[in-house]
Amino acid sequence: MIEGVILVSVGRNLNRAVRTCYSFGVNDIYCLQCSGQVKGNLFSATGQVRLHVIDSLDNFCRDNILGLEVAQSLPALQSYPMREIKYLAVGGESVTLKKGDFPAMVRIPTKNDLCLTTEAALAIALYEIARRMSP
């Protein structure tokens, strides 16, 4: 599995992202410009996922981060080689991840061009990564 998830400008869906990460065994979330707060009932995820507030991506090797975006020009998640990937980056619903920040980017193929919610995209991507990395 991957080492962590980078959330970019995630607001009200932060709780759901924490629960989704916990469900898939991801214990570290890095919050870049996130306005959301973890509050309310996280159920069994309470205290299990570490949140790290970061000011930039400078401490990460950008080649090890896989960004999720909706652009049709990007390769599909299912066909992307995961050898070098250690982190998954997902933006808030009104955020577009920039290729300059995330050189490795993929899309989750959907029938319509509507942007997925943060936790929906995260769940699909973490499921696909886990499926492909299992023996």
What structural keywords apply?
2 helices; globular; six-stranded parallel beta sheet; 6 strands; 135 residues; alpha/beta; Alpha/beta knot
Short description:
The protein is of the alpha/beta class. It has two helices and six strands. The protein has a six-stranded parallel beta sheet with strand order 3-2-1-5-4-6, covered by helices on one side.
3D structure, described in words:
It contains 2 helices and 6 strands, in the order E-H-E-E-E-E-E-H. By secondary structure, it is α/β, with parallel strands linked by helices. The chain has a single domain (4-133), classed as Alpha/beta knot. The radius of gyration is 14 Å and the shape is globular. The N and C termini lie close together (11 Å). The model has no long low-confidence stretch (mean pLDDT 89).
What's the arrangement of secondary structure elements?
Blueprint lengths: L3 E5 L5 H10 L4 E5 L17 E5 L10 E4 L18 E5 L12 E3 L11 H16 L2
Parallel strand pairs: 1-2, 1-5, 2-3, 4-5, 4-6
- Return the CATH architecture: 3-Layer(aba) Sandwich
Compressed to H and E, one letter per element, the order equals EHEEEEEH
Radius of gyration: 14 Å
Shape: globular
Total discrete domains: 1
CATH T-level topology: Alpha/beta knot
* Overall number of strands: 6
Query: What is the CATH superfamily label?
Result: SPOUT methyltransferase, trefoil knot domain
Spans of 5+ residues with little confidence (pLDDT < 50)?
Answer: none
Largest sheet, if any?
A: 6 strands, parallel
- Quickly name the level 1 CATH class: Alpha Beta
Overall mean pLDDT stands at 89
Q: Strand sequence of the main sheet, in spatial order?
A: 3-2-1-5-4-6
Beta-strand residue percentage: 15-25%
> How helical, in percent, are the residues?
10-25%
Helix/strand-derived class? alpha/beta
